[in-house]
Design a protein that fits this description.
The radius of gyration is 23 Å and the shape is elongated. It is α/β, with parallel strands linked by helices. The chain starts with 5 loop residues before the first strand and ends with a strand. The longest helix has 14 residues. 28% of the residues lie in helices and 24% in strands.
């Protein structure tokens, strides 16, 4: 029995979440975003178990190559595109679908003669990160269509604030993008996770924005059972957590009122109680920014983190009448303790926590 922290990856929950997303936008194709090692869940394992997906999306060429090397044959979109001539040639030769988001990448595409692939042009409608100016769409689209490396041209944008459903940023972005895609005869992708789950106009984008190709959604965090909204839980969206991040109780001892706990002695106990030590720390991805009071689940009840997080261990207040035993499992996030509830205790977002799991010991995929 291992006493280190581990992430259990529940593949049944992954499939459940995929099906929920499919019902949210039934007329859309799904581009599953599995960059950053599938948000910490294991990119190859996730890809192998999403057999119904229409395409995968990763950030970089090496991620796409890893998927191909492990037998993934579905289309793969490169969200950051190619950074130089060699990467563009490699992407086209491998049949990947690069995103082209700047003049330099468009020039690389025009100079490529190693084959032809589907290409996504990205337009910046307000994120102010990657993408062409919408007002330049006509000449950019014309140049891309003339490139010999382009098989089918597709268009996309990215939403900066779709998780804030009362904010006017998303309607403003959609207003800027509509002239670009209205009347377009190819595929279009607008909806990330919050865009798809929070904005009905995006779930039915083809009818609402007047293009004739396929509408593609790009779910990421929702695949893994995490809500993108601060005011709605994953369970309220019908989602199940895929990652169960857990460790074991490795020590317990009496703690006197007034005793200091951990490095710097920043926590001082206000009562006589039982202290528990759990085998997880920032070396496992349980960030040092978690502060005293952070909930931990053990034997069906919530206890609280006390003191600073160490590299391999955390301390919790088990309570004065605790009957927990060495080897008992503590849930750091997962069933009964959603990661979106835990994240604010570290001034973090759920994406950051699940992506940060270090996998010091082998994670386990279970159905």
């Amino acid at each position: 029995m291992s006493f280190g922290a581990r992430a259990l990856i529940r593949l049944g929950a992954l499939k459940h979440n995929f099906d929920i997303i499919r019902t949210t936008a039934p007329d859309s194709k799904i581009m599953a975003v599995i960059k950053a090692n599938a948000y910490g869940h294991g990119m190859v394992t996730v890809a192998q178990h999403l057999s119904d997906v229409d395409a995968f999306a990763v950030a970089r060429v090496p991620e796409a190559m890893q998927l191909r090397d492990n037998g993934i044959t579905a289309p793969i979109v490169l969200l950051a595109g190619a950074m130089n001539k060699d990467e563009m040639n490699a992407a086209v030769q491998a049949g990947f679908e690069p995103v082209v988001h700047c003049p330099e990448q468009l020039e690389l595409l025009e100079a490529t003669s190693t084959g032809s692939v589907n290409v996504w042009l990205k337009f910046d409608t307000g994120m102010n990160r990657l993408g062409f100016v919408p007002g330049d769409a006509a000449p950019i689209i014309s140049r891309a269509r003339a490139a010999s490396a382009v098989n089918e041209l597709r268009l996309m944008t990215h939403l900066s604030s779709a998780d804030e459903r009362e904010d006017m940023t998303t309607p403003d972005q959609l207003r800027r993008f509509k002239p670009v895609i209205e009347g377009f005869d190819g595929s279009v992708s607008i909806g990330n996770t919050p865009g798809t789950l929070g904005w009905p106009a995006i779930a039915d984008a083809r009818r609402n924005f007047g293009f004739s190709g396929d509408s593609w959604i790009r779910p990421g965090i929702a695949l893994f059972g995490v809500s993108p909204f601060a005011d709605v839980t994953a369970s309220e969206l019908g989602l199940k957590p895929v990652m169960q991040f857990e460790a074991r109780l490795i020590a317990r001892k009496p703690l006197r009122a007034g005793a200091k706990v951990g490095y710097k002695g920043r926590y001082i106990s206000d009562r006589n109680t039982q202290l528990g030590v759990i085998s997880a720390g920032y070396g496992d991805g349980y960030t040092r920014h978690f502060r005293s009071g952070t909930p931990v689940l053990i034997n069906g009840r919530r206890v609280t983190l006390i003191g600073n997080v160490s590299m391999d261990m955390i301390a919790v207040d088990l309570g004065p009448d605790a009957g927990d035993a060495i080897g008992d499992i503590a849930t750091l996030w997962g069933d009964g303790l959603p990661v979106e509830e835990i994240a604010p205790w570290a001034h973090a977002i759920p994406y950051e926590l699940v992506c940060g799991v270090m996998h010091r010991e082998d994670s386990e995929a279970v159905n």
